[in-house]
Structure formats: structure tokens, C-alpha cells
Design brief:
The chain has 23 helices and eight strands. It has 484 residues and is of the alpha/beta class. Helix 21 (419-441) links the parallel strand 7 (411-416) and strand 8 (446-451). The site of zinc ion has 9 residues, from helix 4.
């Protein structure tokens, strides 16, 4: 097992947890070790490894700057897994009060060989309430020679009474660069020739877990030998290397729905796993999103378009059948369907047009009408923003697709330009829209919808206070930001 073989033996080898390592080293060299530690963080980020190094350092006969010597009998016994005074317990399989009682009985005996007895309780959140209470008693009055290290992947499931008794360290996901570096070192030591690109692929798949990364690397070597290619690595990890991911991303960005649908069908006909294919396409779009967001003249339209495409693809559910093209086709269609006429710039133009029509068709004051129109528009923009924060799809249905017809008492009447948006909002978005409108207006709101002709002059709006209320609550009209 490469993971055990290359498990860090000293603090300097623990990758990606520098602040924790530094704090522990300082505590050790100044002899200020706590009685109880709580190590929390995702799996495979070095919690138990660090606990074992800590156990060695506490007992080491030749401590050097807080680092264990890995030479003395105490260090050796821990490295060889024969240390009597390091007691490891997996709370996942020893959850009950009896197990903790047993632990407490063992704590009563002072260490037999070493200076300190170290108790390492892994997955401590799994303990039963009774067991937690028993543990708490021990933590309240620990014998002077005992050190506890509790480790957990689910910090929120550990009772606050336990957490407050411990010095807490939050382990973070290991950065990809650090994983690649460590893997490169191990590969070299193992006589394996593997490209940095391959190691990056592994690092990305491990999602910040060093243990998973090393295990994957080991599987690659076991399958393909000491000179694996990128294709082989991709293949083993089930990553799709298919140019059509790029093609689909481009088709979506350039609004080519026909091509996107053709590609979806082709890929499905070829028997590719559409979960992976879609994920790979999403990753390409995420890169573009990042590039767009970073550029000096941030293009808000492209940003919102990219994020809408990504959101739609990410929502596609292939669990029923990973080779079924339908979820992907639907995702492509919903991603593009709102784009051509409902981008925020277009909605501004729409308002301008209708203002012009209103002015020419009514006898109302030319000064008053545009102001009222614009405030109504601001309310609907604020509503769109609030709904989008809760549900991207609902946001898309409201984006420039409707206008406020009236707001009498508790009834909010929206006029939609297209049956599709109206039906979506009525059938799936009603609760959300009513909820968010209530928040904006600080009163109960019931939604009514109807279809309106985009070009028809609107009913003279009378409720400028709606928009004022929304603006007071911090709502910003989107189209103004877009123009800046
Ligand atoms: Zn030592």
C-alpha cells in the first residue's frame, strides 16, 4: 500500500496544512501541549496522520524543533504500530457507552512505556449521546499523562460541550499543486515516469484528499505499469476525452441549439456516459466563465449567459439512465430558450419601445409616464433578482419576460409575453414569486398572471410606491448596471 508506505513521518511532510503544523510545532517546542485536540476536515486531508506525528513528538526522546526524531524507541514503536500507549479507536465501529467506558478504564492506568498516553478517536461524531457524555467526563478531568485527539469529518455533529473542551484545528482540502508535488515525489521514488498533466488529472479528481490521490495513483500504476500515459489515466478515472465536449460548449455559447441537440444525440448514440460528458462540458464552460470574469472589461451579458448554461447543464439528471440524451437535450434547450430576446439589454430596449408607444398613444403627461414606467420596471427587476438568488430557473422565467399590470391590495398581476414563461411561473414558480414579492413589499401577495401583447401600450401604472419600497430594501435595477 503506497499510502501507508508514504504516510508522512514528520510534520515537514504533511502537505497543505501549514498553519496547523506550525501551531503544533510551536506548542511542542515550548512544552505547551493541550490535553485535548479536535481535528476536523474532509477525508484524507491528514487528520490521523498529524495525530500520529503529534503522538510521536509528545513522547519523543530527541525532539528537534517540535519534530519527532523517528529514531528513538518511542518513535519506532509508533511507526511500527506496536506502541502500547497510543490507543486508537474508530468511533464508527465503537459507538456505544461501553466502548467509552472501556476507554475510561484504560485511561486510569498510567502509561507503561512512554511519557504520555495518547488517545486517538477517529470519526468521533459517530458516538452515541451516552458515549459522548462519558467522554465529556473524561475530558473535564483528564489525568495529567493523557492527551486526547478527536478527529471528525462532520464537525457540526459533535456536541458543543465536547468542542469547547478541545483545541480545535480545521484541516482544509489540500491544494491541487501540493498534491501534484507530493505525487511527483512519490512517483520518482517508486521509479514511475508519469507526466505532470496526468498527476494534475489525479489531483483534480481527488478533490483535495491526499489519501484518495495516492490511492488513485497506485491504481494507475497497478493497471498500466510504471509509464502510464495521460489517455490511460483519463481512461481509468472515467474522464471523457472527447472533442465534442468543446463543440457542445461552443454551440451553446453561440446559441446554436440545433448543433447542440445534434451533438447530444450523437454522443448518446455512441454510448458515452452522458453524466461524464456533461460534466466535462461544464468544466470547459467554467473555465470560460473564469476567463470572462477576470477580463478587464467584464461582459455582464456573457457572464449571465455562461452561468445560465452551466446552471442548466448542472441540473440535468442522468441517474435514471446515463446514456439517455433527453436530460441533456432539455438542459441545452432551457439554457438557450430565454437568451435571444430576454437578455437584460433587450429588456431595456423593450421598455424604451413601450414607453415611446405609450407616449404617442396616450394623452398623459410625457414627463410623468416614463418615470412611472421605469419604477414599475425596477420592481420587476428586483423581484427577478430575488427569485434568481433562490432558484436560477425561476429567475430565467422572469428575466425580461413580463411586466407588472397592476397591484391592487394583495394581488400582484403580471403580464407575460410568452405562454412558456407564464406557465412555468404559474405552475412551478408561483410560491417563490409570491414569497419574494411579499418580502419586497412587506405584505401578503397573491400572484395572478395573464398573457399580454408585447407591443400593446401598457395600462397606466399607478403604483410607483412598489418600486420605491423595493429600492429602499436595497434592490438595484439590473439594466443600469449592465450599461455601465
Ligand atoms: Zn523520537
Amino acid at each position: 500500500m503506497l499510502y501507508s508506505k508514504w504516510r508522512p513521518k514528520g510534520f515537514e511532510e504533511v502537505v497543505g496544512q501549514e498553519p496547523i503544523v506550525t501551531t503544533l510545532r510551536n506548542a511542542l517546542s515550548s512544552d505547551q501541549v493541550a490535553h485535548a485536540y479536535l481535528f476536523s476536515g474532509p477525508r484524507g486531508t491528514g487528520k490521523t496522520t498529524t495525530a500520529r506525528i503529534l503522538a510521536k513528538a509528545i513522547n519523543c526522546e530527541d525532539l528537534n524543533n517540535g519534530d519527532p526524531c523517528n529514531q528513538c524507541s518511542s518513535c519506532n514503536s509508533i511507526n511500527e504500530d506496536v506502541a502500547f500507549d497510543l490507543i486508537e479507536m474508530d468511533a464508527a465501529s465503537n459507538r456505544g457507552i461501553d466502548d467509552v467506558r472501556d476507554l475510561r478504564e484504560r485511561i486510569a492506568f498510567s502509561p507503561s512505556v512512554m511519557k504520555h498516553k495518547v488517545y486517538l478517536l477517529d470519526e468521533v461524531h459517530m458516538l452515541t449521546t451516552g458515549a459522548f457524555n462519558a467522554l465529556l467526563k473524561t475530558l473535564e478531568e483528564p489525568p495529567s499523562y493523557a492527551i486526547f485527539v478527536l478527529a471528525t469529518t462532520e464537525l457540526h455533529q459533535v456536541p458543543a460541550t465536547i468542542v469547547s473542551r478541545c483545541q480545535r484545528f480545521d484541516f482544509r482540502r489540500v491544494p491541487n499543486d501540493a498534491i501534484v508535488q507530493r505525487l511527483a515525489f512519490i512517483a520518482k521514488e517508486e521509479g514511475c515516469t508519469i507526466s505532470e498533466e496526468s498527476l494534475s488529472v489525479i489531483a483534480r479528481q481527488s478533490r483535495g484528499g491526499m489519501r484518495d490521490a495516492i490511492t488513485m495513483f497506485e491504481q494507475v500504476v497497478a493497471l498500466f505499469g510504471l509509464t502510464p500515459t495521460v489517455e490511460e489515466v483519463n481512461n481509468m478515472l472515467g474522464i471523457i476525452e472527447d472533442d465534442r465536449t468543446n463543440e457542445l460548449a461552443s454551440a451553446l455559447v453561440s446559441d446554436d441549439l440545433v448543433r447542440a441537440l445534434e451533438l447530444s444525440r450523437e454522443v448518446s448514440d455512441d454510448g458515452l456516459d452522458l453524466t461524464k460528458f456533461t460534466k466535462a462540458t461544464i468544466n470547459i464552460l467554467r473555465e470560460r466563465l473564469l476567463v470572462t470574469a477576470r477580463s478587464k472589461d467584464v461582459d455582464l451579458i456573457s457572464l449571465s449567459k455562461l452561468s445560465r448554461i452551466i446552471a442548466n447543464l448542472a441540473a440535468a439528471d442522468f441517474r435514471r439512465d446515463p446514456s439517455d440524451a433527453i436530460p441533456l437535450e432539455v438542459a441545452c434547450t432551457t439554457a438557450l430558450i430565454v437568451e435571444p430576446e430576454n437578455s437584460s439589454i433587450n429588456s431595456v430596449q423593450k421598455v424604451d419601445n413601450s414607453v415611446a408607444t405609450t407616449n404617442s398613444n396616450t394623452t398623459g403627461s410625457a414627463r410623468d409616464v416614463p418615470i412611472e414606467e421605469s419604477e414599475e420596471d425596477r420592481f420587476i427587476q428586483a423581484l427577478y433578482q430575488k427569485c434568481r438568488e433562490k432558484d436560477v430557473k425561476a429567475g430565467a422565467w422572469l428575466n425580461g419576460s413580463c411586466e407588472v399590470l397592476s397591484m391592487d391590495g394583495n394581488i400582484l398581476k403580471l403580464g407575460f409575453y410568452k405562454p412558456f414563461h407564464m406557465q412555468k411561473v404559474e405552475n412551478e414558480g408561483r410560491t417563490l414569486v409570491e414569497q419574494q414579492a411579499s418580502i419586497l413589499l412587506k405584505r401578503d401577495v397573491t400572484l395572478e398572471v395573464q398573457l399580454v401583447n408585447d407591443k400593446k401600450p401598457r395600462r397606466a401604472p399607478q403604483r410607483g410606491h412598489l418600486a420605491k419600497a423595493a429600492l429602499e430594501l436595497g434592490a438595484k435595477p439590473v439594466h443600469l448596471e449592465g450599461k455601465d
